[in-house]
């Protein structure tokens, strides 16, 4: 809209005052100067400085930055927010530091069952998958469900069959094994909740939200769920409106935290709805759900979000949240703790 207005004004000026042409063309070029925003998360939880060594911190910030740069490259060159968030999420899924793809947490049976979802704020199309065990990058399967099927959600074997039909990359389930995660499961089953390492890494889901140069918003989330979850348990991540939501009219949201609470509070959709129907700003809407409603319910976690004007927002009620952001006017930056 803003772009259109500037362009129309520029054309009117060119016609009426030819001597202004050069100046006006400059304005036009500037107006076209590319506006985009991207925000990512790598999970929320009891992330405290005293539990993280400088090497781990460096590694995590490095992966977050790599993910931001992958998405930004696409947005900068005029690519879509959908492509950008998939590129960003794939990097986090491939990193053992995060609870998604390689590095996913274990179920109580010692397996990895992965969930993911994606939503296109322009069309309100969405795709999601739950309980898959051989999909290397679950976010790419969620995207395929959205783009190539007439459904929104596939689970288990049906999702795996669809993946094979679509030529989505699969791996042996052992690909997801990460020793550190397995130790977390053993500790959780031994009820050793005093272990800093366990409490520290309770969550770790990944997600991304972006708005591209066309003003289209997209959001996506991918996870291994929660350590020691029961076989077949599905969290908020693949539930459209709970862990993920996007609507060009308001905002895009990706969540991380204790999924059962996020489902009951329909976190992602509620934030967008508060903007749409109550006229709240993105930060107000996010805080109303995350810092008030979820706190009341005792639901730990947080969200990342982008609104239709490109504003980026974080809101988390946990001690920390792995996160990062970048836009046309802001270099990539990352955060881990409450105070960065
Ligand atoms: N929300 C995820 C779930 O409950 C867990 C997380 O965010 O780490 O499955």
TrEMBL record:
<dbReference type="Pfam" id="PF01112">
    <property type="entry name" value="Asparaginase_2"/>
</dbReference>
<dbReference type="GO" id="GO:0008233">
    <property type="term" value="F:peptidase activity"/>
</dbReference>
<keyword id="KW-0068">Autocatalytic cleavage</keyword>
<dbReference type="GO" id="GO:0016811">
    <property type="term" value="F:hydrolase activity, acting on carbon-nitrogen (but not peptide) bonds, in linear amides"/>
</dbReference>
<dbReference type="GO" id="GO:0006508">
    <property type="term" value="P:proteolysis"/>
</dbReference>
<keyword id="KW-0645">Protease</keyword>
<protein>
    <recommendedName>
        <fullName>Isoaspartyl peptidase</fullName>
    </recommendedName>
</protein>
<feature type="binding site">
    <location>
        <begin position="256"/>
        <end position="259"/>
    </location>
    <ligand>
        <name>substrate</name>
    </ligand>
</feature>
<feature type="binding site">
    <location>
        <begin position="233"/>
        <end position="236"/>
    </location>
    <ligand>
        <name>substrate</name>
    </ligand>
</feature>
<dbReference type="InterPro" id="IPR000246">
    <property type="entry name" value="Peptidase_T2"/>
</dbReference>
<feature type="signal peptide">
    <location>
        <begin position="1"/>
        <end position="21"/>
    </location>
</feature>
<feature type="site" description="Cleavage; by autolysis">
    <location>
        <begin position="204"/>
        <end position="205"/>
    </location>
</feature>
<dbReference type="InterPro" id="IPR029055">
    <property type="entry name" value="Ntn_hydrolases_N"/>
</dbReference>
<keyword id="KW-0378">Hydrolase</keyword>
<keyword id="KW-0732">Signal</keyword>
<feature type="active site" description="Nucleophile">
    <location>
        <position position="205"/>
    </location>
</feature>
């Amino acid at each position: 809209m803003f772009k259109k207005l500037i362009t129309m004004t520029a054309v009117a000026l060119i016609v009426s005052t030819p001597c202004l042409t050069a100046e006006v063309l400059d304005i036009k070029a500037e107006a076209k100067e590319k506006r985009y925003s991207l925000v990512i998360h790598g999970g929320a939880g009891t992330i405290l400085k005293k539990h993280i060594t400088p090497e781990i911190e460096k590694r995590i910030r490095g992966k977050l930055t790599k993910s931001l740069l992958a998405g930004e490259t696409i947005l900068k060159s005029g690519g879509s927010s959908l492509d950008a968030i998939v590129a960003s999420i794939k990097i986090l899924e491939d990193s053992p530091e995060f609870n998604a793809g390689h590095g996913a947490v274990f179920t109580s049976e010692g397996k990895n069952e992965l969930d993911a979802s994606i939503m296109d704020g322009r069309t309100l199309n969405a795709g999601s998958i739950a309980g898959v065990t051989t999909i290397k990058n679950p976010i790419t399967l969620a995207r395929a469900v959205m783009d190539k099927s007439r459904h929104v959600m596939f689970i288990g074997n049906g999702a795996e069959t669809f993946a094979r039909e679509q030529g989505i990359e699969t791996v042996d389930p052992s690909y997801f094994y990460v020793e550190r995660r397995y130790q977390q499961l053993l500790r959780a089953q031994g009820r050793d909740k005093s272990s800093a390492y366990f409490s520290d890494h309770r969550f770790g889901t990944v997600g991304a939200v972006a708005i591209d140069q066309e003003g289209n918003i997209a959001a996506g989330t991918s996870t291994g769920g929660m350590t020691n979850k029961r076989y077949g348990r599905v969290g908020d991540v693949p539930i459209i409106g709970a862990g993920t939501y996007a609507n060009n009219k308001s905002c895009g949201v990706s969540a991380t935290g204790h999924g059962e609470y996020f489902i009951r509070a329909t976190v992602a959709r509620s934030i967008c709805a508060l903007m749409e129907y109550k006229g709240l700003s993105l930060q107000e809407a996010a805080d109303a759900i995350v810092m008030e409603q979820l706190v009341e319910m005792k639901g730990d976690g947080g969200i990342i979000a982008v609104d239709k004007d490109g504003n980026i927002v974080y809101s988390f009620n946990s001690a920390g949240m792995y996160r990062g952001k970048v836009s046309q006017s802001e270099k990539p930056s990352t955060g881990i703790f409450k105070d960065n």
